[in-house]
Amino acid sequence: MSVFLSETDIAKFLGQSLPDTRKALKSAKLKSINRQGHRVFTREDILNWLAENFTSLTSERLMRADHSSADIAGLDPFSCGITQLLSESQIFFPERASTRSSILRSISMKAVERGAVYDAAELRDQLEKRETVISTALKCGAALIHPLDIRQLYVEKELLLLVIPPHPIPFGEANGRLTSLFFLLLFPDPNRHVHILARLNRLLRSNDFIENLLVAVSHEDALDMVYRRELDVISSGGKS
């Protein structure tokens, strides 16, 4: 797993031209280094930047990032990938969770139970570090949680979890909004990570979808809502 990503790698993630990508990177003021005559960026800096950048993209540009990253990863961009990842009992409704610390502890333990990682404490530490840099909470009321540096973890298998606590909690959203939906992304392959990140952002651009998930009472109900929303996104092109 490469520590560095080139401008060309990033352009492919975004599904846009190299000049447009260079312009975006310059605007973001991300640190880069020169390796063998090429400008490169650390993998974690780029993935964290994309997590923040995707929320401001137009629907069409977000769709391009979704499709382009899927193609690079060898995935079908028109399949219901999120539904498939959540289908094996990967949606949870914890009875108690009222703080950022408690939700991250619960999520880390679930990741161990699912066999994705072996050490809940190490995962929780990486999640806490990521939230300290900048919160993964979005203004829509969802958080797309991921480790600050997944290379510091031994990931046995990739994992997507959805955790829906009984009440919204303060999680660090920039404007103080509470967070109600928590997705954990554990994808060592950066192409897979970017694809899942882009697809989730597309799903979460529907207030109706979010409100429906919040009243789901079972894994089956929530999964059906995800499936129907993902079908809408796939069929809508860049209008979602």
What would you say this structure looks like, in words?
With 240 residues, this protein is α/β, with parallel strands linked by helices. The chain has 2 domains: 4-72, Multidrug-efflux Transporter Regulator, Chain: A, Domain 2, CATH 1.10.1660; 81-239, Mannitol-specific EII, Chain A (3-Layer(aba) Sandwich), CATH 3.40.930. Helices cover 49% and strands 13% of the residues. The protein contains 10 helices and 9 strands. It has helices at residues 7-14, 18-28, 43-53, 59-72, 81-86, 100-113, 120-133, 190-203, 207-214, 219-235; strands spanning 4-6, 33-35, 38-42, 91-92, 142-145, 159-163, 169-170, 178-179, 181-186. The strands form 3 sheets. A 4-stranded mixed β-sheet has the order 4-6-9-5, sandwiched between helices. Strands 1-3-2 form a 3-stranded antiparallel β-sheet. A two-stranded antiparallel sheet has the order 7-8. Strand 2 (33-35) and strand 3 form a beta hairpin. The radius of gyration is 17 Å and the shape is globular. The two termini are 32 Å apart.
